[in-house]
Specification:
By secondary structure, the protein is of the alpha/beta class. The protein folds into two domains: about 150 residues, 3-Layer(aba) Sandwich (Rossmann fold); about 110 residues, Rossmann fold (3-Layer(aba) Sandwich), CATH 3.40.50. It is about 45% helix and about 15% strand. It has 13 helices and ten strands. Strands 4-3-1-2-9-10 form a six-stranded parallel beta sheet, with helices on both faces. Strands 6-5-7-8 form a four-stranded parallel beta sheet, sandwiched between helices. Helix 1 packs across helix 11 and helix 5 crosses helix 7. The chain is globular, with a radius of gyration of 18 Å. The chain starts with 6 loop residues before the first strand and ends with a strand. Bound molecules: D-glutamic acid. The site of D-glutamic acid has 17 residues, from helix 3.
């Protein structure tokens, strides 16, 4: 299909599949290509330069596969690479292409979830250190008090299939204790990493009942739907055969398929795409 113009969805590994699940449910007609950079995941503890370079390389791969629009379904990449990609790289490459992230759409609505006006943001070290959520939420909900906690061991636990094992409990409880110790008024915790929904059952089990947990999948899917309504020039460009393709930079596609099916709640069959 030569004229296929899919929506590209990128993550460092599997996490973006939780967002892709919601997007595919809300916007089923489009063609999609998912790309996980599993060969270099996790990104969370890496430098700004590395995250930008890896993310931009993967975005270019998705452009080459025909995607006019790419969603960075990764908070770490959105925090550390999106601005440079939007303001510099795209201008040099192809200004008609678009790359969107997950932080702004989340910041736009997160204030609607809290009664106490105090929320906790859980993310990777990269996301937390970037301060992106503090800045974006301040812009839309200046009255909110936002507390942050980096959870650097959660992604490795999840990527290694340990998220539902008893060993994960200690690390779940430990980071939750640390964020809740910052304020007794927190009533909403945002999972600001697309991997974390896999830990949802354990997170809920360790939280007091009055604290709600917000994942990003549906928020990002709704925001993409709004974006396509506001941008008919992009919407019309996108091809609509309802296909889904999965690519990973890891040469172990069988391993990817096994884990990915759990994140995506459906069977996944991937293809290997080598890094240059
Ligand atoms: N899923 C990614 C995010 O939302 C991060 C995972 C990683 O550390 O690579 O931040």
């Amino acid at each position: 299909m030569l004229n296929k113009q899919p929506i590209g969805i990128f993550d460092s590994g599997y996490g973006g599949l939780t967002v892709f699940r919601s997007i595919a449910d809300q916007l089923p007609g489009y063609d999609y290509i998912y790309l996980g950079d599993n060969a270099r995941a996790p990104y969370g503890n890496r430098s700004f330069q590395a995250i930008h370079q890896y993310t931009w390389e993967c975005v270019q791969m998705l452009f080459k596969m025909g995607c006019p629009l790419v969603i960075l379904a990764c908070n770490t990449a959105s925090a550390k690479a999106l601005r440079t990609i939007q303001q510099q790289d795209l201008q040099n490459e192809d200004p008609a292409k678009r790359v969107l992230g997950v932080i702004r759409p989340t910041a736009e609505v997160i204030g609607n979830y809290t009664q106490t006006k105090e929320i906790g943001v859980l993310g990777t070290k990269g996301t937390v250190q970037s301060g992106s959520y503090l800045m974006e939420i301040e812009h839309f909900f200046p009255e909110l008090k936002v507390y942050q906690q980096a959870c650097p061991l959660w992604v490795p636990l999840i990527e290694n299939g340990e998220y539902d094992k008893p060993g994960a409990d200690y690390f779940v409880a430990s980071y939750l204790d640390q964020i809740l110790a910052q304020s007794t008024n927190i009533d909403t915790l945002l999972l600001a990493c697309t991997h974390y929904p896999l830990l949802l059952d354990k997170i809920r089990a360790y939280l007091p009942g009055h604290i709600q947990v917000v994942s990003q999948g549906e928020i990002v899917a709704k925001s993409l739907s709004d974006y396509l309504h506001r941008h008919p020039e992009m919407e019309q460009k996108l091809s609509k055969n309802g296909t889904q393709q999965f690519f990973t930079t890891s040469d172990d596609t069988a391993d990817f398929d096994h884990h990915a099916s759990l994140f995506f709640s459906a069977k996944v069959q991937s293809e290997f795409i080598p890094l240059k």
